[in-house]
Write a structure and sequence with these properties.
Blueprint lengths: L1 E9 L5 E10 L4 E6 L5 H8 L7 E6 L2 E2 L7 E4 L11 H6 L6 H14 L15 H13 L5 E5 L7 H18 L2 E6 L2 H7 L2 E6 L4 E7 L11 H14 L2 H9 L1
Parallel strand pairs: 3-8, 3-9, 6-7, 7-8
Antiparallel strand pairs: 1-2, 1-4, 4-5, 9-10
The structure holds adenosine-5'-triphosphate.
Amino acid sequence: MLAVQKVSRTFDNGYKAFKPVSFHTEQSEIVGILGTSGCGKSTLLRAIAGLDLGFDGEISFQEQSVRSGTEHTGVVFQEPRLMPWLTVIDNVVFGLKGNKQEKREKGARLLRAVGLKDTEKLYPRELSGGMAQRAAIARALVTNPQLLLLDEPFSALDAFTKMQLQELLIDLWETNHTSMLIVTHDIDEALFLCDRVLIFRDQPGVLFKDLKIDLQRPRERGSLEMAEYKREILQSLDLNHDVHVKSAI
Ligand SMILES: Nc1ncnc2c1ncn2[C@@H]1O[C@H](COP(=O)(O)OP(=O)(O)OP(=O)(O)O)[C@@H](O)[C@H]1O
């Protein structure tokens, strides 16, 4: 479905965000891009979203290059990026073409799907951080994207809201099986959500490991199996050293 072939990104100042990377994702897969700060995760996601076309290599979705359009894609950023002068529903349907009534019905349906019933007429300033991010997810889904790209979507939220929104993503996925690519530096989040985790490390970044997460859903947070995967990821990131030091204190 998504094919990333020998993609790298060198900025105008000569800095290379990551070395050539190649991978494919399958239909309906939830794939995590996990790695330490600065290894190029967001830069790669922006390239896949078609927001930064200065990369080398080729990125295509269903054999269409991202250089010639990304109408199949929805994007959720770390901040909700809602327009403060528009109501919640107008934010959600902004950019959607078609008749006003149909747009409103679709917007209302999506708001219900993300748990924001009765918020249509509110303004973004009247929402909590978690509610605003739910609205941002609804907005990203309004065009029925086949691929949802999420760039650290929950990292600004408190731990409980974060877990609720992770569960929301899984609920949405169970309904429509939209493929997702999610950038995160939260290992627990990656293990809760993803079918596969692409582990990046170093600067410039390299794709160090492509790890299949073979766990049934619904997943139990903190299960022994998850702990095993976590250990493997920490080893890949070369962070186990810190864990040993901390547990020795
Ligand atoms: N426009 C730019 N010009 C030059 N360097 C840049 C530019 N954008 C990003 N970088 C650099 O590229 C590297 C990768 O940045 P990127 O934001 O993709 O990393 P990241 O893995 O998403 O990090 P974090 O998890 O901290 O968000 C960083 O060293 C960053 O400073």
